[in-house]
Design goal:
275 residues; 5-stranded antiparallel beta sheet; 12 strands
């Protein structure tokens, strides 16, 4: 596995054109589904490279390392990117399970998926969350009739680094340390530290903070939560620690970030007083 980075996305959901260029190994806390309608892609997912051709659908669950290694000049299609938490009836499958194979071939698809993909392409760019959520709900409903997620423990071909990322992805909002993760996965603290430094090329604490701040960005767009509440919901013991971590990662305070997405009159007023 090459050098990996954690990607933070500003948009809660995205339905649009596919990535049209190679993209390095990365991981994030969202689902990424690529529906290729023309051309060829090569993607590496959990250490295995796949060749994707027209009509195939690639499904990447949260905390799964993946990269775009090659994209042909004539490639086109639809990409769906969304938090696994926005459609609650599918959250468990997307957060706690895995796919035996991440690529759904054209021959294995239900015709309803092709209809949805074609309609989504015609409607670029989309307007309004309601339409986007409707597409996602329908798409997942038909997708999970074609693919059957299985419990993570049955996916023994996942290397240890992928198991580490998936475990952290399920528990990062809880009190979590390098020692607790090592113990739960049955490896030594030194070995786990080596995975982060040599394979993932990111510090353990930096990775936890990246996940938590990514979640915080999602929650800050909802004016119902105060900034202090967001801090606790994202696993921080106190707002001061949250403020410092947010500022370090986003180069702005939580209040400044919130003002980009929420009307001032609807914001629970809470000043940034932490230094």
């Amino acid at each position: 596995m090459g050098t990996l980075f954690y990607e933070i996305r500003d948009d809660e959901t995205y339905i649009g054109q596919i990535c049209d260029h190679p993209f390095p190994l990365h991981v994030h806390d969202v689902v990424e589904i690529v529906c290729l309608t023309n051309g060829v892609q090569k993607m590496t997912i959990s250490g295995t490279q796949y060749t994707i051709t027209a009509g195939d659908i690639t499904v990447v669950f949260p905390a799964i390392p993946h990269s775009y290694d090659f994209v042909s000049k004539d490639a086109s299609g639809v990409t769906l990117i969304f938090s696994p938490d926005i459609i609650s009836e599918f959250t468990y499958q997307l957060r706690s399970m895995a796919l035996e194979h991440p690529v759904l071939a054209q021959a294995e698809k239900l015709p309803e998926l092709d209809v949805l993909i074609s309609d989504m392409q015609k409607r670029f760019p989309h307007h309004g969350k309601g339409l986007v959520y409707g597409y996602l709900h329908l798409f997942l409903s038909f997708l999970f009739k074609c693919v059957k997620p299985v419990p993570m423990e049955k996916q023994m071909h996942y290397d240890l680094s992928c198991q580490v990322l998936r475990y952290i992805g399920e528990h990062y909002l809880e009190p979590i340390t390098l020692e607790t993760v090592a113990r739960m996965l049955g490896v030594s603290r030194i070995h786990l530290s080596h995975i982060f430094s040599q394979q993932l090329r990111i510090n353990f604490r930096q990775y936890i903070n990246a996940l938590r701040i990514d979640r915080a960005c999602f929650l800050l767009r909802n004016p119902a939560h105060s900034i202090s509440e967001v801090a606790y919901l994202c696993g921080y013991g106190n707002p001061r620690t949250f403020h410092r971590a947010f500022l370090a990662q986003c180069r702005m305070t939580p209040t400044q970030y919130r003002r980009q997405f929420v009307e001032p009159d609807s914001i629970f007023q809470e000043e940034d007083v932490y230094t």
